[in-house]
Design a protein that fits this description.
Layout lengths: L1 H30 L1 H4 L5 H5 L4 H13 L8 E2 L8 E2 L7 H8 L12 H24 L2 H12 L2 H9 L7 H11 L6 H15 L3 H18 L4 H21 L50 H10 L5 H22 L2 E4 L2 E5 L4 H7 L11 H20 L4 H31 L5 H5 L2 H8 L4 E4 L4 H13 L3 E2 L19 H7 L6 E5 L2 H10 L5 E3 L2 E6 L1
Parallel strand pairs: 5-6, 5-7
Antiparallel strand pairs: 1-2, 3-4, 7-9, 8-9
């Protein structure tokens, strides 16, 4: 008996390790070993999306001394400051690698390592979930493969690497299906800490999964004190993380809730990423609601509904209702189908201001890919257990659906593979006389730049950190409260008042400020690479 148990344990280890490696190998095939190399920073600098913002946030955070404001820095967006929370620079890895900043090479990116780990953990947690619900190795591998092939993760890897951490959603699902384990509360606490240290947008997503677990516990007539205790642990963890990590110093989003919402057609709308289905129209800015399931998963989900019974519906209707209610958040208060508004209802200003924290509300629909996958495998495996003679047929059906999924995403995968392997330096980087600019920066401590070409601003941000001087701009997702003191006064206003900061170079990119400077600061303006600047000694 003990020997059989050992063999079973070894098989599980092999299964879960294989699914982890499946995720890693898939990503390396698409992404390339070159981009994973932490010493190769080309793709994070010039690959597009928000990845440069994440990288530059890490670089400035690394140089700034540790303070009681744990994840904050003043040298970026100087003098007000910034935080790796609002530059979306992955606070978890920023804090970890900052511990080793004195031994790390000057140019170091962890984004490639992070993405590889995300795909590996995607494979691991999905396999853990599938084996728990099916006790079938083949189903576990197929479930894991479906999870790894979620197009949203690959899309995020290209444009917003921090949000590729969908394994945090799978971790929550794994916790929920193990609701009766002694370690359940501890696992949830860890899940929340990781979410708060990676990206706050995952919090309402795992919140939905936690709510479904609470419903399950109520259905199973678990003692009320146990349910309340679990909830209190979760709420306490959120509050502790909120204050320890400095979320209270971050200003709420000012733009309107639902500006980047989800279209009701999102689950079946490939948005240019399918080889088999046509695109459906959407409203502008609804790209954040991209959540195409793929034709393979759509077929699998629809086929699984054939195995619904009256008993299953009776026991599960409450989960469906909760998911529908939750779906209103990513859809926002303007529910759309294609380019039609089906329903629009006003919300009180105080509610809108709070919901605007999650301006990109369309992202909050991401758990539904995994819930659809989970539902499909639960229904298939339950029927297969009762009718063992049909198990090979069910396995063949699931496998066929996965093949359809691969075919559907073949062009999508190839396009991203080409994108990752064709990243080169931006043209502006070679146009600037970096050696001459670096000589100028030797005599200054601060760099202030006006509005202008984003590529030029990015290039100067890189030169600023490489010369270890402060930079007055940052592509922050949000603002921060003035915890360091100081004020970000427009350069045009400084020129009029002549209240410049010592040892500062002022770079002028917009014509209006140049005109003001030439009128009020004549004789002090220099030019290099067609860019006007002046230095206040």
């Amino acid at each position: 008996m003990e020997e059989k148990k050992t063999i079973s344990t070894l098989r599980k280890i092999v299964l879960f390790s294989s699914c982890f490696l499946l995720g890693v190998l898939f990503f390396i095939t698409i992404f390339g070993v070159k981009n994973i190399n932490p010493l190769d920073t080309i793709w994070v600098k010039y690959g597009g999306g928000d990845n440069f913002q994440h990288y530059i946030g890490w670089r400035f955070f690394r140089e700034f001394p540790w303070t009681r404001y744990f994840l904050f820095m003043r040298n970026l967006n100087y003098p007000v400051g910034s935080s790796v929370i609002i530059t979306d620079s992955n606070p978890l890895l920023c804090a970890f690698f900052k511990l080793f900043r004195n031994v790390l090479p000057p140019e170091f990116q962890f984004n490639g390592i992070w993405l590889t780990l995300c795909f590996g953990l995607q494979g691991l947690f999905s396999a853990l979930i599938a084996f728990k619900i099916t006790e079938n190795s083949i189903f576990s591998i197929l479930f894991s493969a479906f999870a790894i092939l979620n197009p949203v993760i690959l899309q995020r890897a290209a444009i917003h690497d921090t949000l590729a951490a969908h394994w945090l959603i799978l971790f929550a699902i794994f916790n929920a299906i193990n609701w009766n384990k002694k370690w359940n509360s501890i696992a949830w606490i860890l899940n929340i800490i990781l979410v708060m240290m990676v990206h706050i947008y995952f919090l309402p997503m795992i919140g939905l999964i936690f709510l479904l677990q609470m419903i399950r516990m109520i259905q199973k007539q678990i003692a009320w004190w146990k349910i309340i205790e679990t909830c209190l642990f979760i709420i306490l963890t959120i509050f502790i993380c909120y204050f320890l990590l400095g979320y209270q110093y971050i200003q709420p989003e000012t733009t309107s809730f639902g500006e980047l919402s989800m279209n009701l057609n999102a689950f079946i709308n490939p948005d240019g990423n399918s080889s088999l289905l046509s695109d459906r129209p959407t409203f502008p800015l609804q790209y954040e609601g991209f959540n195409y399931w793929g034709l393979g998963l759509i077929c699998l989900f629809l086929l699984s509904l054939l195995f619904l019974s009256g008993k299953i519906i009776k026991n599960s209707w409450i989960y469906f209702v909760v998911c529908i209610i939750y779906l209103i958040i990513p859809l926002s208060n303007h529910i759309t189908w294609d380019n039609h508004v089906l329903l629009s209802f006003p919300l009180p200003e105080n509610i809108l201001s709070k919901l605007s924290i999650f301006r990109s509300s369309g992202r909050l629909s991401w758990p539904f890919y995994y819930l659809a996958l989970l539902t499909s495998f639960v229904l298939f495996s339950r029927y297969a257990k009762k009718n063992k003679k049909f198990r090979p047929i069910f396995t063949a059906i699931v496998t066929l659906c996965f093949v359809i999924q691969i075919i559907d995403f073949s062009d999508f995968i190839l396009s991203y593979q080409n994108r990752f392997h064709q990243i080169t330096d931006r043209e502006v980087a070679t146009q600037l006389s970096q050696d001459q600019w670096n000589d100028i920066f030797e005599n200054v401590e601060h760099l202030a730049i006006t509005e202008g070409d984003s590529k030029i601003i990015d290039a100067f941000a890189l030169m600023a950190i490489e010369n270890k001087i402060t930079f007055n701009r940052s592509a922050n997702a949000r603002g921060i409260k003035n915890i360091f003191g100081g004020e970000n006064i427009p350069i045009s206003e400084l020129i009029l008042t002549k209240k410049f900061e010592a040892k500062t170079i002022y770079i002028l990119l917009d014509q209006e400020t140049i005109s003001v400077a030439e009128k009020n600061w004549e004789g002090n303006i220099c030019e290099l690479d067609g860019i006007k600047y002046f230095i206040f000694p």
